[in-house]
């Protein structure tokens, strides 16, 4: 068996019960199971918090809209091949599943008059959108028809665009570091030959110049023909276990949609001016992100987004009550925790490692009597028994730091912690 088969996210997704696909539901329409949903929820909360702390305002908008909305946005003219056919309610009332969130976010900007003081206005949403991918190209989470995109549209004055793009690139790097994403490279995606692009040459040249300036000093490649239909973009590429390259994060400049939606703000002199729309995604869609994260971590997520962070293993039934009491305390401390009672202790420890659970807490008669627990890490290391509060503090510190390691950096100072070497690394 090839290495790429071993770490295929579809296999791991099935083994770890992260997501499922069912032909009855349809190809490219995966279902997130509780374990996958727990991990995704932790990542979504992190991304929302990161955005909130950096000046983004979150909105909710529906995943479908009237045909006229997508005529206005240009999607029907330039992107119809990738969209599902319209749903007709009556002769003059047709709806489309949206292929992008930009049209709705343009309407957020247009919801009232805007002043230059509000810019950049950063409208963010983790929202649903749909692409009519052919069934032959669909696979697991990496290529799907229902997409949950970490998206935002930053409306700026032209002179703010350079700083805004650089700031977005900084946030992309910060999110990648927390999640364990290791980009394969940055790419400047440019217009190619053909008629599939909107806007005039001057707009494209200006947008390209702004993106080049933001990339100054960085390593990047150029990809003619990979631009969006409305403008050039910076793409952050990833490579999956089978060596296939795709785009995860992106920053795109758009002069066209502000025209189409007649967006404007009032400048300091009271004149109406057109904003620039910057489309950006820090971590791409939840689907593509998790296809990548499952493979790059071989299912062993950092503790902060592991589906179950701590599994408690009473040595025998006599310690079950103590284990449930510890579980209650761990839950109250904000951890995702389970108690496993079925089978021999050795089999349960192996099962915890197989499921990539970061911490297993063994509760024997001695631990139950003195209120302690013995932590075993999924990489095979074990710690001497320590008071329950210390164990929960240790796990909580690793989770709060969003650390890729399973022990706090200062663990050497903890007198109760002794590492017994590493065993079966996963
Ligand atoms: Zn957009």
Automatic annotation (TrEMBL):
Q: Name one Pfam family in it.
A: HGTP_anticodon
Q: Which Gene Ontology terms describe the biological processes this protein takes part in?
A: threonyl-tRNA aminoacylation
Give an example GO cellular component term for this record: cytoplasm
InterPro entries per the UniProt record, alphabetical: aa-tRNA-synt_IIb (IPR002314), aa-tRNA-synth_II (IPR006195), aa-tRNA-synth_II/BPL/LPL (IPR045864), Anticodon-bd (IPR004154), Anticodon-bd_dom_sf (IPR036621), Thr-tRNA-ligase_IIa (IPR002320), ThrRS_core (IPR033728)
> What does it catalyze?
tRNA(Thr) + L-threonine + ATP = L-threonyl-tRNA(Thr) + AMP + diphosphate + H(+)
Instruction: Indicate whether Hydrolase appears among the record's keywords.
Output: no
Give its E.C. classification number.
Answer: 6.1.1.3
* Aminoacyl-transfer RNA synthetases class-II family profile domain location: 34-302
Any idea which GO molecular function terms this record carries? ATP binding; metal ion binding; threonine-tRNA ligase activity
Give the enzyme class: ligase
Q: Which UniProt keywords apply?
A: Aminoacyl-tRNA synthetase, ATP-binding, Cytoplasm, Ligase, Metal-binding, Nucleotide-binding, Protein biosynthesis, Zinc
Q: Which CDD domains match?
A: ThrRS_core
Give the UniProt family note.
Belongs to the class-II aminoacyl-tRNA synthetase family.
What's the name of the protein?
A: Threonine--tRNA ligase
Native organism is Micromonospora sp. CCTCC AA 2012012
The gene name on file is thrS
